[in-house]
Amino acid sequence: MDKDADVAGRTIVTINKKLFVNMDAGEGYLTRIPYQQVFVRIPKSDGYLSENEEMLTVRLRDEQVYEITDAKGILSGTMEGRDLKVHYEDKTKRKRKESRNGRKYSGKEWTVGGSIRNG
Fold first, then answer.
1. Which bin fits 17, alpha (ψ -120 to 50), beta or left (φ > 0)?
2. Cα separations (Å) of 69 from 7, 76, 84, 97?
3. Fewest CB within a 10 Å sphere: which of 14, 17, 68, 71?
4. What element of type H or E holds 101?
5. For position 35, what pLDDT does the model report?
């Protein structure tokens, strides 16, 4: 995963194909959130696939509310872009940040700031 600043209130992330679930979904791309067992639907207007379809580049908007679903596609809640983007930070960068904050990383799940809000 890669994270770059775009303009205020937006972050560019790249998502590797191993997290793709349904890239042909009519209204958006469905991908698994890293280190989680839940999925996010990203509007097609906010992202594009690379030519070889191995990477998805997405512009996450801090204020936008994204739908979070379980493995069966059932809506389980929502998450704002500012909270969602934390899950796409580089794992090494995340571990460094946690050690500075005195937290431990389990290697399985990690939530900062906001969590999934049950819908």
1. alpha
2. 28, 5, 13, 28
3. 71
4. helix 91-101
5. 85
Q: Fill in the DSSP letter of residue 21.
A: E
Tokens of 104: 């431990």
Sign of CA dihedral 25, 3, 62, 36: positive
Predicted model pTM:
0.67
Measured over the CA atoms of residue 53, residue 70, residue 44 and residue 66, the dihedral's sign is negative
Identify the burial level of 46 via C-beta atoms within 10 angstroms of its C-beta, where 0-12 means exposed, 13-18 middle and 19 or more buried: middle
Task: Kindly state the percentage of the chain with pLDDT values over 70.
Answer: 66
Structural contact between residues 47 and 19, judged by C-beta atoms closer than 8 angstroms: no
